[in-house]
Amino acid sequence: MAEVEQGRKQSEEFTDESEEEDSEEEPKLKYERLSNGVTEILQKDAASCMTVHDKFLALGTHFGKVFLLDIQGNVTQRFEISSVKINQISLDESGEHVGICSEDGKVQVFGLYTREGFHENFDCPVKVVALHPQFTRSNYKQFVTGGNKLLLYERNWLNRWKMSVLHEGEGSITNIQWRANLIAWANNVGVKIYDIGTKQRITNVLRDNVSLRPDMYPCSLCWKNNSTLIVGWGTSIKICVVKERNPTEMRDLPSRYVEIVSAFETEFFISGLAPLADQLVTLYFVKENSDQMDEDFRARPRLDIIQPLAETCEEISSDALTVRNFKDNECRDYRLEHSEGESLFYIISPKDIVVAKERDQDDHIDWLLEKKKYEEALMAAEISFKNIKRHDVQKIGMAYINHLVEKGDYDSAARKCQKVLGKNMDLWENEVYRFKTIGQLKAISQYLPRGDLRLRPAIYEMILHEFLKTDYEGFATLIREWPGELYNNMAIVQAVLDHLKRDPTNRTLLTTLAELYTYDQRYDKALEIYLKLRHKDVYQLIHKHNLFSSIEDKIVLLMDFDKEKAVDMLLDNEDKLSTDRVVEELADRPELLHVYLHKLFKRDHHKGQKYHERQIGLYAEYDRPNLLPFLRDSTHCPLEKALEICQQRNFVEETVFLLSRMGNCRRALQMIMEELEDVDKAIEFAKEQDDAELWENLISYSIDKPPFITGLLNNIGTHVDPILLIHRIKEGMEIPNLRDSLVKILQDYNLQILLREGCKKILVADSLSLLQKMHRTQMRGVRVDEENICESCHATILPSDMAKPFSVVVFNCRHMFHKECLPSSGTIPGVQFCNICSAKKRRPGNGILEMKK
User: Which residue stretches does the UniProt record annotate as biased composition, category Acidic residues (predicted)?
Assistant: First the structure.
């Protein structure tokens, strides 16, 4: 159970005896004692009843007085009604009329602004009075009173009050609640509901525990809406819904009936009920001998929020209230009234009035801060920043940062600074100095503003100096991440130089110094450091800042660091570093020169052609596998020089290629067979040259070498007639795999025959197809009209007068002539040829159509 707090003005008496339980569950309601004029009233008198309107409160006392109060408890009006206890005050919905009844039988109904109304004295106490909710309207001037009888008063058209008895004979009436056309009242037997519109009594809800005295444990009634009545009596709660009866079932029954949708028992005695959305607010009286409560909390009233279910309820929250003189009070001394408009709940006791209200977002944040749930409080404030009144998002954030610092979670505290401090530069600087004081500048360094919003340069320099003293790696990280304009670059450079005097080979400091030089646009110094360190960023620095003029004398250093990257960079920027200049720099390092020239040759065979002669020796010395491809692709290297180098180094394959390229194929073939002794390569060489004399030399050399003969038999079948070789084989010579070689020769021969036959069939079929196509084409008609001309005289092919006789010759080539324009027949009588096609030495076309008329 949560402690009750007063809110705006704490009362020492109200809080001294309150329980303070460390609960992780947030209370649903907050409490405030109604003070001001109420305090003075209850010091001399005691509250007996109270009615709540959205605009004001009406309080009745044991000494027969009625006070109208504002929401803060200030007295606005006072009425002397009686000298004894006021039992009930009733207000209509407009708050313009009030009904009052007292223990001495007085009943008064009057307008608060007119004072005209009903005044009557009865000979017995009147316990309750209720005005029609629309009493202000002339046709609803009705009210009911309850004592031993339930009496209805109506004002007729003569402006006189007419009384009628609605119910009697079941003991004293203790409670009446009027909603729309329904009047609910409670007596000793149970609860009844009366429909004033149909003038019918709808139902009777019996009292469960008849052993309890009705005057000591009165019934609590509350309308949730126009059709839902909540009944609390003793420890029992029932929720009743008024429903329309089906017309077919009416007969003599009322037009409405009541269904009890929920009924359950509670732990304690009910002193009051009020709805809260779909939940219930219940005021409990706890008897002193209750076994469920500790001794310190017996007789202390409780205000619970419960969720009603069909046969039970679920407790949502429970608060024990320390009201004044609670130990002297009974169940009948407490009342619970509520204001529907603002969800305010008033707990009335003889000497105290406490207001309970739903907690707002400010209260929620208060609770989170009290429980040190700062992150949730900050999130709640950010979400509801437009609705909170007592809190400031930044102040909550600062409290959160302070809490994290106190816990020692410096990194989280620094991270929150970004979100909380925002653009407030003064707060940022204060936090930086605070982190410096506690020795945690490193924690906040990575979260400092570094964009458009910036602190003073001295702040950043202070942090850099701190890192430089204790953490070189962290210092280097900040230099990489922070823009150079955040701080005085020269001051930091000097500080780094001072540290390098003590540790001149420290790579981290040297790298960072190079970056600082880069920020300061002193690229030559940065380049010098990068080359010294062989740093991978040296190439990026050269490209980015166009430092090619600075590396002319550092090409060897770049090549030693990374040949591939260096050569690619040099070749990509030939316009800035010429090939001649690079070759000159690499003259003393031939192995590096070879790498450069090789890549240059790969990109373009003609670039660097004047260095091809030098490249022959470089390839021979450092890269023989690429020498032969170079000799094949280069058209600028001197063959005699290349042959000399290859012969000196006994490079047979390269020498063979050069000899063949120079036309000395016979010597090249001889080297293959004598020095390489590779018959397959010799045969391949002979195939490439396709020279009959070369084949003859190969056969003559191989005729006394059985392995060579086998190789020739297996491979020359398609180039040389194998019979020539077979006839020259000496009798009795053993030749390895001779049978297999002969079989292969026969198979190759059969394959050639099959290929020829297949080709012949295809050729014949194609020829026939083309002949048929040509025949079909030549058999087609040819259109001749006025647009066509004679290819000889260039006149229109058709005469203007079609009635005259004419003769036209059209050839297959589509050239047309007047017959008289054609020359006489040639060597073949009766056959004519197109003069144009014959002149162009095309295959002559004979006439395909002769038109006569």
Answer: 13-25
Residue 7's pLDDT band, with cuts at 50, 70 and 90, is: very low
pLDDT tens string 372-409: 888 888 888 888 878 788 888 888 888 888 888 888 88
Q: Which amino acid is at 690?
A: D
Beta bridge partners of 677: none
Q: Give the containing element (helix H, strand E) for 164.
A: strand 161-168
Q: What is the mean pLDDT of residues 160-178?
A: 90
Confidence of residue 700 (pLDDT cuts 50, 70, 90): low
**Distance separating alpha carbons of residues 285 and 301, to the nearest angstrom:** 5
Beginning with the edge strand found earlier in the chain, give each strand of the sheet holding 65-69 in spatial order. 47-52, 57-61, 65-69, 75-80
Does residue 168 contact residue 150 with C-beta atoms inside 8 Å? yes
Q: Which two tokens stand for residue 42?
A: 């209850």
Q: Which spans in 320-409 are helix H?
A: 361-370, 374-383, 393-407
Is residue 118's pLDDT more than 80?
Answer: yes
The beta strands (E) that lie in 11-131 are given as 29-33, 47-52, 57-61, 65-69, 75-80, 86-91, 97-102, 106-111, 117-121, 128-131
Q: Position of tokens 């609960």?
A: 23
Residue 221 tokens read as 């009634």
Helices marked H in 604-737? 612-622, 627-633, 639-648, 652-661, 665-671, 679-689, 692-702, 706-715, 722-727
DSSP state at residue 3: P
How far is Cα 284 from Cα 292, in angstroms, rounded to an integer?
13
- The pLDDT assigned to 677 comes to 67
Cα(802)–Cα(588) distance, rounded to whole angstroms? 95
**CA–CA separation, 3 vs 22, rounded Å?**
10
pTM value surpassing 0.85? no
Q: What percent of the chain has pLDDT over 70?
A: 86
Spatial distance between the Cα atoms of 270 and 308, rounded to a whole number of angstroms: 15
Note whether 233 and 266 are within 8 A (CB): no
Q: Does residue 192 register a pLDDT over 90? A: yes
Percentages helix, strand, coil for the chain (3-state, rounded to 5) are 40, 25, 35
Q: How far is residue 687's CA from residue 667's CA, in Å, rounded to a whole number?
A: 16
**Distance between CA 283 and CA 702 in Å, rounded?**
124
For 490-506, write each residue's pLDDT tens digit.
888 888 888 888 888 88
Q: How far apart are CA 118 and CA 195, in angstroms?
A: 23
Sheet containing 269-276: order of strands: 269-276, 279-285, 302-308, 313-320
Instruction: Please state the separation of Cα 608 from the chain's center in Å.
Output: 56
DSSP classification of residue 175: E
The amino acid sitting at 818 is H
